[in-house]
Amino acid sequence: MKILPRSFYDRNTVDVAQDLLGKILVRRIGQKVISGMIIETEAYRYKDDEASHSFAGMTERNKAMFGEVGRAYVYFTYGMHYCMNVVARNVNFKAGAVLFRALEPIEGIDYMIKQRKTTISNLTNGPAKLTQALQITKKQYGEDLTKPSSLFVIEDRKIKKTEIKTRSRIGIKKATDKLWNFSLID
DNA sequence: CTGTTGATCTGCT
DNA sequence: GCAGATCAACAGT
Which of A23, A61, A75, A128 is most solvent-facing, going by the fewest CB within 10 Å? Predict the structure, then answer.
């Protein structure tokens, strides 16, 4: 098992979003290990992306998107949900991040069921669901995902380009021409 | 300060 | 398919 190096995130946000598919997101809470394969992501960029939180510039909430790549950007939305991104961009952009939208549970499934109080098919099939299952909150804001701490991403299998489904991003009304939602499921 | 909107999920109809 | 939960950012008063 190999942790993705910082250089992995130092590339075009859209490329990183595609390359994250098939990788494993690992959460460690004390001795407990919870993990899942990343099966859906979305890319959010900067001035060229009207739908991105960073589009209108830096705020207290989104400042992580302007910070070091490979770190977590966690935000609170709709009054009750957290969503998790990893900061990723190349040198041409001041901000950018990849939203984790869905995982396929691997380890710690019993723990997720306890957190979520629901059945296995509903554990991590949505951005706010997976943060709840992995117990990710603003405490993980800025967490370094390139270090074997409590939250990180490891290499797994290589995904063929032909396996990736491309769509318009979900739940947004702006910039719907950008096909920046990537997934391994139909 | 007030009102509106939102990268959502759940439970009910 | 739709309402409700109810926080952070922003535009307007």
Answer: A61
Q: Which nucleotides along chain B are within 7 A of a protein C-beta?
A: 6-11
Report the alpha-carbon distance of residue A109 to residue A105 in Å, rounded. 6
Nucleotide nearest to A123 (CA to C1'): B9
Q: What is the pTM of this model?
A: 0.95
Question: Residue A53 belongs to a domain with what CATH number?
Answer: 3.10.300.10
* Both tokens assigned to A122: 């509903």
Return residues with beta carbons within 7 A of strand B: A 42, 44, 51-54, 62, 65, 73, 75, 77-81, 83, 85, 97, 99, 116, 118, 122, 126-129, 169-174
Residue A52 in any domain: the answer is yes
In this structure, are strands A81-87 and A165-167 parallel, antiparallel, or unpaired? Answer: unpaired
Domain-located, residue A1: no
